[in-house]
Amino acid sequence: MKTLGRLITAMVTPFGEDGDVDYEQARRLALGLLGSGSDGLVLVGTTGESPTTLRREELKLFAEIKSAVGKKGTVIAGTGSNSTAEAAEATRQAEEAGVDGCLLVVPYYNKPTQEGLYRHFRAVAESTGLPCILYNVPSRTVVSLSADTVIRLSQVANIVGIKEASGNLAQIARIIQNTGEDFTVWSGNDSDTLPILALGGYGVISVASHLVGIQIREMMTRFASGETDRAAEIHRNLMPLFDALFVVANPIPLKYALNHLGFKVGRPRPPLYEPDEKTAAFIRETLKDYRVDLPI
User: Fold this and answer.
1) Domain-located, residue 287
2) What is the pLDDT of residues 58-97, one digit of tens each?
């Protein structure tokens, strides 16, 4: 399912001054991202503040964004949960809303075994006709999806890839080595994109592409065409920005950056809050060194 895209942006969820989802601004942001390098969008993932969005808001957002973008890009719904039944229900509802795929995070807090993870993801995938992307982010979920479990899950027909944010390059290499060409590995950390491409990965589900999507796309295109020195130069140049966008928990820095630049996406929802002045100043200073690709 490489048609889902090589550069996919994990989109923030814009909120208005009242704290409600700003669907009109979400539509503008989605179209702006697709016009500045992205092939597709993940909605209501980590960057989209999935812990504090309500199901009714999520379903409306899925339908609104898919209607707005049409065939301009793919829309992937974050429907994972630490409850198998809830993840399956959310995925079925997202499918009814018209999305192109779903992103399924490793269940968090209840710490399932690898066999439990295998059964969880298989059950959710079997509940839908959508292509499913696994999401391994052990810094947030505690439990990591092992390479062996990913390899087993790659045999499920509509589990088409993984967003790998473990930072474990040995594990990622083993996944790439032992899955078929129809199984896609996306980097889940902007700073890992070039190393994962070098291992045989396909692309990235990115946070920084809100700001520098065209530049990230150029880096990947240069690498794919054999211009590895130029790709490495672009990647190195972007590293300080990647770091700044994770100086505190995502999406706090990104939302601050977008608001500072003039593309209003509102504050994060509690318990996330805006950065303190020292952190905000660091983000502002970092932004001065970059050309912003998003139309603002």
Assistant:
1) no
2) 999 999 999 999 999 999 999 999 999 999 999 999 999 9
Cis peptide before 271 (omega within 30 of 0): yes
Please report whether residue 286 resides in a domain.
Answer: no
CATH code: domain of residue 154: 3.20.20.70
Strand partners, 159: 132
**DSSP secondary structure string for all residues of 56-121:** HHHHHHHHHHHHHHTTSSEEEEE---SSHHHHHHHHHHHHHHT-SEEEEEPP-SS---HHHHHHHH
Q: What's the total number of domains in the chain?
A: 1
What residues does 8 pair with on adjacent strands? 40, 205
Residues with catalytic annotation? 135, 163
Task: Tell me if 46 is assigned to some domain.
Answer: yes
Claim: this prediction has a pTM higher than 0.85: yes
Q: Is 250 helix (H, G, I), strand (E, B) or coil?
A: coil
Q: What whole-number distance in Å separates Cα of residue 160 and Cα of residue 181?
A: 10
Neighbours of 39 (CB within 10 A): 21
Residue span of the structural domain in which 70 resides: 2-230
> Does any domain span residue 243?
no
239 half-sphere exposure, CB direction, 13 A CA radius: 10
